[in-house]
Amino acid sequence: MQLSKSQPKTPIAKSRIKVAKVPFAEILTMAAESLWNNRLRTALTMLGVIIGIAAVIAITSVGQGIQKATETQLQALGTNSINVLTGSARIGGINQGGGSASALTLEDAQAVAKAPAVKLVSPYLQRTRQVAYGGQNTSTSVIGTDINYSPIRNTFPNEGRYFEQADIDNAKSVIVLGAKVRSDLFGGENALGERVRIQGEQYQVIGVMEPKGSAGGFDQDDRVYIPLKNMSARQVGNNALQGISVSGFWVQALDESEIEAAQFQLTNLLRLRHKIYPPQPDDFRIVNQTDIVSAFTNIVGLLTLMVGAIAAISLIVGGIGIANIMLVSVVERTREIGVRKALGATRAAILNQFLTEAILVSGLGGIVGIGLGVAIAYGSATIFQFPFLISIWAVLAGFGLSMIVGLVAGVIPARSAAKLDPIQALRSD
């Protein structure tokens, strides 16, 4: 019998144990379930992130709104204007402060008006006085000025009229009220044609200025206006050696590009008139309206940045809270981690689950914080009446920071969970 040829041996394939990767959707579902099962703890953990994001967005929005409102108000008063003020007197070597010297006169203002880069000049005298009507009285700023004050300061009456040249030349006892003073003295009654008292002098109301609000910390509506010569003669007295002493004068340049030229011209002109030669200090001060706007914008911007940075610290506190709660969660769920590892869960799967939980907490906290911050900013803008502005960069930066905080805070607890020995984990209570 012929032996059959031996059949070729079939090689036995080596078995390879492959651990299936856990889909991200499943990890996300497990993380969400874990957080939902501990709702109170999750909410308290999110609180730090919510407060941090809301504070950053609200503070940034409020700061930008106030900055924009102030810029608009200052610019409405004219960005091509310059304020020349009296300097400071020195008594016994001690500086008495700005405005203490009586160095500027009406004649100085008239001389400055002839400078090539100057369009208009308005000298003024300013004092704080009690203004009374009937049984009502209020302490306010009384400004003695001329017909150019209104166009230079871009403020006009919405009731009655402003001064005419005859009022100025004849030092008439007429007065234009600011909106707040009119409200304080007359309430809802008509003020035109009525007479008010200032230091015993009677003044007839001929107009009421339009409301301008506060600008640079000064209420533009809490003041009244009378003719300059009347102010000098009846309220202050001519205390200059020659002519009429003034507190200062507003200067309007031909346009905004001529501000520097006008400032240079009037500086040299006043130095010549007052016989000031280097190194003698000037007995006057010059304030550029554009510089005021720029300086105030920078100050508010820096304050907003500083306070926003302080508010962002609460995000770090929130991150510490997330890390703490996640570490507690690892300890509480040691047996669960052991069971999952015994069933084939890899370190990566355990790591991903705990990282996902931390990121979910911070992400949800970031979303709620954004909504709360926008609501606070809108409410503040509505109540205090400044523009409602939300910076998209502040929102993105705040949310991105919250996600980073969650990721960083979850790394250590997640690594601790992934490194647990399954046998020891299963033995734990």
Explain the overall architecture.
With 429 residues, the protein is an alpha+beta fold. It has 2 domains: 24-72 and 296-427, no CATH class; 102-282, no CATH class. It is built from 13 helices and 14 strands. The protein has helices at 24-37, 39-76, 106-112, 149-153, 165-169, 179-186, 228-236, 259-273, 289-332, 334-342, 347-384, 392-418, 422-427, and strands spanning 81-86, 88-91, 94-98, 118-133, 136-145, 157-160, 174-177, 195-198, 201-209, 214-215, 218-219, 223-227, 248-253, 284-288. A 6-stranded mixed β-barrel has the order 4-5-12-7-9-8. A two-stranded antiparallel sheet has the order 2-3. It is elongated, with a radius of gyration of 37 Å.
- The string of secondary-structure elements, in order, is HHEEEHEEHEHEHEEEEEHEHEHHHHH
Shape: elongated
Strand runs, count = 14
Mean pLDDT: 81
Number of domains: 2
As a percent range, the share of helical residues equals: 40-55%
Radius of gyration: 37 Å
Strand order of the largest sheet: 4-5-12-7-9-8
Beta-strand percent range: 15-25%
Tally of helical runs: 13
Low-pLDDT regions: 1-19, 89-100
Major β-sheet annotation = 6 strands, mixed, barrel
The end-to-end distance, rounded to whole angstroms, is 72 Å
- Structural class category: alpha+beta
Overview features:
429 residues; alpha+beta; 2 domains; 6-stranded mixed β-barrel; two-stranded antiparallel ribbon; 13 helices; 14 strands; 52% helix; elongated; disordered N terminus
